[in-house]
Specification:
The complex is a heterodimer. Helices cover 53% and strands 0% of the residues of chain A. Chain A is mainly α. The chains are: A mainly alpha, B alpha/beta.
Chain lengths: 81, 684
């Protein structure tokens, strides 16, 4: 899936978890610039993303991600046929 | 009874109409009713049907009539309209959401569910693991069943400290209930493989005493009910099958400790046991443990397992506060026996031991009877001729007899009306009932018309009914009569005396018992990665909130103008790893502390004192006369606002959100008393 599409796809999930109905995401979005994206919200985001794309992040795969763009790249890689 | 959406285009409706012959549509007048409509749709969809949510606003005022006309044009001959009552999402909608959906929608659900009159509840959760996920799920489940809970959660793995050593926080919180949530990772010491019987029992009593002192302390300071869970089996059978047999087996140790917990809960009525062992077995260890989450966030379980824990707790809490269900209402045809008695006759219905299907119905009747024997009332609600329905119970193979039913409603009236009659007859509120019916349409109608009645989605396979009813935790029993409480009191006093032995005189003595030992040294290459990681993920115990890249850390490590220290801490529970970092920058006779962080997992261990000792010693050695500390408020570091004051620094400047402190090096006296600091050969 195209990365812009994945970001649109993630928006409602983030909007639910962070409880901000008008949330807009960009590849530069990260815990430091999105309100409410704290470590507890992060746990829920990971659960939701794993279920949404039927993937499992391996231990350590997430710790170096700097922003949503990198997360999307990882999702693309893990969902690639 | 097939269903189709009215929101589908007409052409699609027509195509489906060719295959289907009747319809239920759900009339939704207000957006707040959509939860119920979606719930009805979901339980019907599980039988292979497609149901639509008809928003009346789509059809304006002429909605129902126009919908009816559209439908009849397409050959529909039977239309049932349901009007959902509910204006807030309820327990049935909540219950059918999978864990990840509950977690995703949590904040909105909490807002919507918080409306209305709810019973306030204060729950302290003392966790040996990160408890936030279980608490988040529990909060929603409790809201759905009428409780508005306020939570206190201990810091990660501080359940013992918060219960025994510093119980003031719990006392001040004034909980109605304390939940001690510990898992197999919290057992302090397992027997070694060659363990003798004597050693095994010593270990067992010492572990039990530790928990008893927790329960006793909570009872003493908060005087409330404690829910303690027992332990799941250890994740690995080190000794294979022998693990459950030998004294050196962790499985055997867990089994015996669980038995001791059960005995304790049996003696002490203010201690309730949550059977985590059974929960984990039902789910299965493969679906229970989530090691990635354990290493990442110290959550040991999968979201599904966390939900199972929360559901079981919600059931127990409901029972404690009188919300357990009291009566099971049963349909007859294809629920208590196979077949339709009015059509097939009493000779042809399936019950007994002759066929697999008959056996399954017999088993469900036996399950219902066992519920009755433990005090759950049974009632019948069936669309049937009353005489024929009653005659069914003369069948010789029936396990249930007519006099097992406290109310018997068999007629042609709508089931929700009959359930209201049963409620009046038994003088019970509608919220006391669980309704089991194999027919999804009947379940949907009752669910829509009587929101207070619990309608589990039992499906239509009777062999699964007992398991599904069981999984709902509807009939949890907690005996809490006055007499019970008084008896509990005398046990509690005895237990308290015994428990004091396991308690420490003061906090220092406790810290000594941890046998802590630290390694505090200047940055070394092998740790630079971990140091960088800790700097960038520590938010709470972080004085300046400053972040550093790996390259910057590397540069600091080799720069003589910096005093940069890391600290590792080991205690009797194991190695906590690298948990603290200080970066000090030398400028003339001053040392500026650009960074001071510590992992919250070692809070209140005096590790910061050991770090300060090491820092001051090195600063003095480098000719520094004064150490300058800085606090800059971030969103999350309020806990260290007073850090420098507590360490004896003098304030230079304080304004809103930031402060500057200083401490003279020559007159400094060592502060740490409880941690043995190992030294390595210094370098640089």
């Amino acid at each position: 899936m195209d990365s812009a599409l994945i970001i649109r796809d993630l928006e409602p999930i983030f909007a639910d978890i962070l409880d901000q109905s008008d949330l807009r995401l960009t590849p530069e979005s990260s815990a430091s610039n999105v309100e409410g994206w704290d470590s507890l919200a992060h746990i829920n985001l990971i659960v939701a993303i794993e279920k949404r794309y039927k993937i499992k992040f391996a231990l350590g795969e997430l710790q170096d991600l700097k922003n949503l763009g990198e997360m999307v790249t990882l999702i693309q890689r893990k969902t690639a046929p | 009874m097939p269903i189709v959406s009215l929101l589908f285009p007409k052409s699609l409706l027509a195509r489906r109409a060719g295959k289907l012959n009747s319809l239920i549509f759900v009339v939704v007048k207000k957006p707040t009713q959509t939860h119920r409509a979606i719930y009805i749709r979901s339980i019907l969809a599980k039988t292979g049907m497609v149901c639509g949510v008809l928003m009346l606003k789509v059809f304006k005022a002429a909605g129902v009539n126009r919908a009816g006309r559209v439908l009849s044009e397409h050959g529909w001959n039977s239309v049932t309209a349901l009007e959902p009552h509910e204006t807030r999402p309820d327990v049935r909608y909540i219950r059918q959401l999978p864990a990840e959906q509950l977690l995703q929608k949590r904040k909105r659900l909490r807002r919507e569910l918080s409306e209305g009159s709810l019973q306030e509840l204060r729950i302290a959760v003392l966790g040996g693991v990160t408890t936030s996920e279980v608490v988040d799920l529990l909060e929603i489940l409790l809201l759905a069943s009428g409780f508005k809970a306020t939570f206190f959660q201990s810091e990660y793995n501080r359940y013992y400290e918060d219960a025994v050593l510093e119980p003031e926080k719990i006392k001040d919180f004034r909980p109605d209930l304390v939940y001690v949530h510990t898992q197999c990772t919290n057992l302090r010491r397992f027997p070694s493989p060659g363990c003798s019987e004597t050693e095994f029992h010593e270990l067992l009593s010492s572990e039990l005493a530790r928990f008893q002192s927790i329960w006793n302390s909570i009872h003493a300071v908060a005087g409330c009910q404690v829910i303690q869970n027992n332990f799941e089996h250890p994740p690995f059978q080190i000794l294979g099958n022998l693990d459950a047999v030998a004294y050196g087996g962790r499985t055997r140790f867990t089994n015996e400790l669980n038995l001791e917990f059960a005995k304790a809960a049996n003696r002490n009525h203010r201690l309730l046991l949550q059977d985590l062992n059974a929960l984990s077995a039902r789910i299965g260890h493969a679906q229970w443990f989530d090691w990635r989450r354990w290493y990442s966030y110290k959550i040991l379980t999968t979201p599904e397992a966390s939900l199972a824990i929360a559901e079981s707790l919600a059931g127990m809490i409901g029972a404690m506060f009188g919300r357990a269900k009291k009566c099971l209402i049963l349909d007859l045809d294809n629920t208590l026996w196979g077949g339709v008695i009015g059509d097939d006759g009493i000779d042809k219905i399936q019950i007994g031991k002759e066929t697999p299907v008959a056996e399954a119905y017999t088993a469900f009747q036996t399950y219902c009877l066992s519920l009755r024997e433990r005090g759950v009332l049974l009632a019948v609600c069936s669309k049937n001729d009353p005489e024929i329905a009653r005659a069914g119970f003369t069948h010789p193979e029936m396990v249930l007899k007519l006099d097992h039913f406290s109310s018997f409603q068999a007629n042609w009236k709508a089931k929700h009306e009959n359930i209201e009659t049963i409620a009046r007859e038994l003088n019970l509120g509608l919220e006391s009932f669980v309704f089991v019916d194999d027919n999804p349409a009947e379940r949907a109608i009752v669910a829509a018309q009587l929101p207070a009645v619990t309608v589990p989605d039992v499906g239509s396979d009777v062999s699964l009914f007992p398991g599904i009813v069981q999984a709902g935790h509807y009939f949890e029993a907690v005996n809490l009569s006055k007499e019970d409480l008084e008896r509990a009191q005398s046990y509690a006093t005895n237990a308290q005396r015994a428990g004091l032995e396991a308690k420490f005189a003061d906090y220092g003595e406790y810290l000594d018992s941890l046998q802590m030992s630290a390694e505090i040294e200047a940055f070394r290459p092998i740790y630079l990665e971990r140091i960088t990681q800790l700097i960038n993920k520590t938010n709470q115990f972080n004085l300046t909130g400053r972040r550093y890249t790996y390259t910057e850390v590397e540069r600091i490590a080799s720069n003589g103008n910096y005093i940069a220290l890391y600290g590792k801490l080991t205690d009797t529970f194991g190695d906590n790893g690298l948990v603290s970092v200080i970066i000090g920058r030398i400028e003339g006779s001053l040392l500026h502390l650009d960074l001071w962080i510590m992992s919250c997992r070692v809070l209140k261990r005096d590790m910061e004192l050991a770090m300060l000792d090491a820092l001051m010693e090195r600063a003095h050695g480098a000719g520094v006369e004064r150490v300058m500390g800085y606090y800059g408020r971030t969103a999350k570091n309020a806990m260290v606002a007073d850090h420098y004051r507590k360490l004896g620094f003098e304030s230079c400047a304080e304004d809103e959100g930031s402060s500057t402190w200083n401490l003279a090096t020559p007159s400094y006296l060592r502060k740490n008393q409880h941690i043995e600091v190992r030294t390595r050969v210094l370098h640089g």
